[in-house]
Amino acid sequence: MTNDLARWQFATTSIYHFLFVPVTIGLAFLVAILQTAWHRNEKPEYKRLTKFFGTLLLINVAVGVVTGLVQEFEFGMNWSAYSRFVGDVFGAPLAMEGLAAFFLESTFLGLWIFGWGRLPKRVHLACIWLVSIGTMLSAMFILAANSWMQHPVGYALNSHGQPELNNIGAIFTNPTFLWGYVHVILASLLTGSLVMLAVSAWHLRKGREVEAFSNAARISVIVLLPVIVLQMFVGNKLGEIETKYQPVKIAAAEAQWENCQPCSFSAFQVGGGKNDKTPSQIIEIPHLLSVLATGTWNGAVVGLNQLQKEDEAKYGPGNYIPDVFIQYWSMRIMAYLGTLILLFALWGGWLLHRGKLAESKWFLRLSIWAVVTPFVMNTAGWLLTENGRQPWIVQGLMKTINANSPSVTSTDIWISLVVFVLIYIALGAADVVLMLRYSRRELGEDDDGEESSAGKPAATTTPAISY
Amino acid sequence: MLHLNTLWSVIIAILWVGFFVLEGFDFGVGMLHMIVGKTEEERRLAVSTIGPWWDGNEVWLIVAGAGMFAAFPSWYATMFSALYLALLLVLAALLARGVALEYTTRSDDERWRRAWRWALTIGSLLIPLLIGVGLGDLLNGLPINSSHEFTGNFFDLLTPYGLWTGLTLLGLCLLHGATFLKLRTTGEVRERAGSLARPLGWAAIALVVGFVIWTRSVAGGPDVPDPVEILAVIAVIFAVRLAVTDHDGWAFAASAVAIGAAVGSIFIALYPNVMISSTNAAYNLTVQNSASGGYALKVMTIVTVIFFPIVLIYQGWSFHVFRGRVKGPSAASDPPAAAVPAAPRA
């Protein structure tokens, strides 16, 4: 019970946190691009766009940063047995994140917000790039830590049977990390570009500031198109890597109970919960699973039944298969939506090529709604990778059931779960209210006032929030 | 060879000290902004004094926590799970306060602003108070068994010494915030901060003196205070004296030293322990029995030696860039480039 509650709490808070993270990473990069464009062409509309999307970035960062604090505290609070067991290895990338990434991101964000008109233009531009680099470095260290849980490397067990770090290089060359990190960065750029595209499309539909928002839409599509093409490739490659190191995860994602060769891909099925070995396959595509999982036409995939037997022989009795329903559908939601976004981006690229991006009524209308998809895909991706690791918290080394804090009662976790959910609902509502309001307001004037509410005398803030 | 475990206990202590020295005035400003600012403009002005920095200052807390995780996993695990409900409140306060700093003035709705202003005030009060209780408990001792697991409940955290430590850090944050506001503002806001410095200062002096005497008794060592504890007392007295005589810069420096020395003295009194077990001294967590292996510490040391000085340089530069007094609404029509920083009287 305590363990389940701790899991619910971690899943809830981290999924919530990751609604904001990719927007931060993606928008920081795009705002840096906009400011660079302004720096080069000196057209005032680029400066106004920089500030406009910069404000959206700040509204989003506020929630992203504080919910990240919860994640860091949660390891020690709810998962003390885990923290004690793996801190020697797992703690290092987290500490490096703070030292090398968080300081960079937050200090230069402050400099950027308050540096308009005060810092030399070139230095001010460097500040937003350092923010962008900080966000990406931060994701790097977190992914290195997370990948170690998926595929532990660079350690040896000491005399107490605990993993001790012995090769820091291995942590950062872990194949799960390398591909997983690129996957997350691409997902973030995809999220950021779809947010910017949606906002721009809304204004273009209203016929407001057509020139400025056409440029923003154009930049969004220019980022989106290569990103989604690469993402399809990288996602597929990550699947192959995981088939190698975490075969159960991928077999469960395909609901593949029996060994097969060649393997057909189940495109849609009914049933297939945790212990349901006979889901009804509705649509099957021959050979496709072989191609996806192994990269060959007739590749063999080992089924869950055999993997379960192998794991029992290796680790003792127990259930080593994660919830197949979650695996199967999170994989498909991610892949199917990704395919739709690929088609959408190709359409956008074609319109851009024809010079009709700002005029296509249907593309703009769809752009506004497409902004929902990255959040669904990001969540599905994390469900796939984290649920697929179960019953392990660190693959092959420690089970989740043994990882929670022995001294923390289920009452404690109930209290904290309720507190977090209530606060998160309130913060989420405030964030959505502000995001909607600020993404619909008109472009600000070309002044040098700061864009943060935390810091500026009332008189000069007025233009920024009068709408 | 310098012992890495000891080095890391020093680094962790420095991170906690840095957190309170820097974020301490942010907390103080958060708690005081509705008192020193009577109008909407003045409140904005008060909060704007910490605008560019508070986020970077808060990272010291993140790095202190993550540093403990990396260097002393057992300490991190025991402390964070033992302080469970206290840290839950700290997190709630951090959530509300962090968002308040960004959201308050983003709407003209009166209720919206009032709600966020209270979130900032109460959040800024709870965090130093509760973290102070937690740090005091490290030295006071908590029921911890032979496997380093906490065996008590929430009420066991409310030890008298822990509560006093929390109040002491709260009082020092208030004084630190007042000296900071005095240093960074002009006009009525500065005057109100100045007139607050005296009563807040006297309270802080009483709290710090009590804290030092109590620490001596809890630590069980010699009855003579160590130099850092004496420094805390002297610095807090100087901070009040200098604030009252309008030496804004020096008063702020003194309150920074006072809060830093107070936090530092806890870790000094703890060493070589990092967390005391009130159940049995044999169950104490120490720099030896709670630390990571030699390789992990060596890696972290190299990373710290490279990155920490860089962090100090750019954070210092950020303080330098925005060093001037913030201007009130009357001066706000000036172009920002003309906002020549007024040199604080030192």
Q: Topology of this structure?
A:
The complex is a heterodimer of chains A (467) and B (346).
Chain A: H1 2-41, H2 44-78, H3 80-115, H4 121-150, E1 155-157, E2 163-165, H5 168-173, H6 175-206, H7 210-245, H8 247-253, E3 265-270, E4 280-285, H9 288-294, H10 304-315, H11 324-354, H12 361-370, H13 372-387, E5 392-394, E6 398-399, H14 410-440, H15 458-465
Chain B: H1 4-36, H2 40-48, H3 54-71, H4 73-82, H5 84-103, H6 110-140, H7 160-184, H8 187-219, H9 227-244, H10 248-270, E1 273-275, E2 285-286, H11 294-321
Antiparallel strand pairs in B: 1-2
Cα Rg of chain A = 24 Å
Question: Greatest interface and its residue counts?
Answer: A-B, 85 and 85 residues
Secondary-structure element order of chain A, N to C? HHHHEEHHHHEEHHHHHEEHH
Write down the overall geometry of chain B. globular
Number of extended strands of chain A: 6
